[in-house]
Amino acid sequence: MQITFQSIGTIHSPFQEVAGMPIQPAGARGVQGSITIEPEFQAGLKDIEGMSHLILLYHLHQEAGYALEVKPFLDNQSHGIFATRAPHRPNAIGLSVVRLQKVEGNTLWIEDVDILDGTPLLDLKPYVPQFDTPVGDVQIGWFTHNVQRVDRTRSDQRFRNK
After folding, report:
1. Nearby residues of 90 by Cβ (< 8 Å), 6 or more positions away
2. How far is CA 118 from each of CA 17, 18, 25, 35, rounded to the nearest angstrom?
3. Which pLDDT tens digit goes with each residue over 108-117?
4. Is the separation of the CB atoms in 118 and 14 below 8 Å?
5. Residue 24 to residue 44: CA distance in whole angstroms
6. Tell me: the pLDDT tens digits for 1-41?
7. Fewer CB atoms inside 10 A, N or C side of the chain?
8. SS (HEC) of 80-92
9. Helix and strand tally (H, E) in the chain?
10. Model pTM score
11. Calpha distance 54→124 (Å, rounded)
12. What element of type H or E holds 130?
C-alpha cells in the first residue's frame, strides 16, 4: 500500500551533516533548534505554548534504501532493524522528544535537538507522561549493555550508500 505524507514544516538545527550528530535527544542536551511551521498549519499551534515537551515525527530525508539487519551506533553486533533506532529503515521516519522553549508566530524554538538541519516535519504531538510512559516492567533487550553511552555516541556514515 502506498501512503503519502505532506510536510507540515521544517526542522532547523546546527547539524549540517549526518556524521558527528548526536544519535538521540539524550545526547543532544542543550542543543538549540527551531521548527518553522508552514503558514497553512499555524492555527494548529493554538495552546501548544503550555507544553514543555513535544514528540516530533519527521522524514529522514537523507536516507536512501534500508536494511533489515544493521549494526546500530551503540553496538558492534547485527540486530534486526526493528530492534534498533537506526535510521536505515523501510519507512524513513524519525522520532524525537524535544523541549519547547517558546513560540513566536509559526516558529517553535526547541532544545535537545538531534535532527539534521532542513529535515521535513511530518507531525508533532505533545509529550504527556501519563500517556507516553509505559506501565509495568520495561525491558530494553540488547540496549541494556549499551544505553549508558548514548550521550557521547555520535552518528557516522555507516548507513550511507547502502
Report:
1. 66, 81
2. 11, 12, 17, 9
3. 999 999 999 9
4. no
5. 27
6. 999 999 999 999 999 998 889 878 888 899 999 999 999 99
7. N
8. EHHHCCCCCCCCC
9. 1, 8
10. 0.89
11. 7
12. helix 129-132
Query: Among residues 103, 110, 106, 7, which one has the least CA distance to residue 58?
Result: 7
Strand partners, 55: 97, 125
Q: Residue 117's CB: how many other CB atoms inside 10 A?
A: 15
CA 53 to chain centre: 13
The four Cα atoms 140, 75, 98, 94 give a dihedral, to 10 degrees, of -90
Cell of 92: 524513513
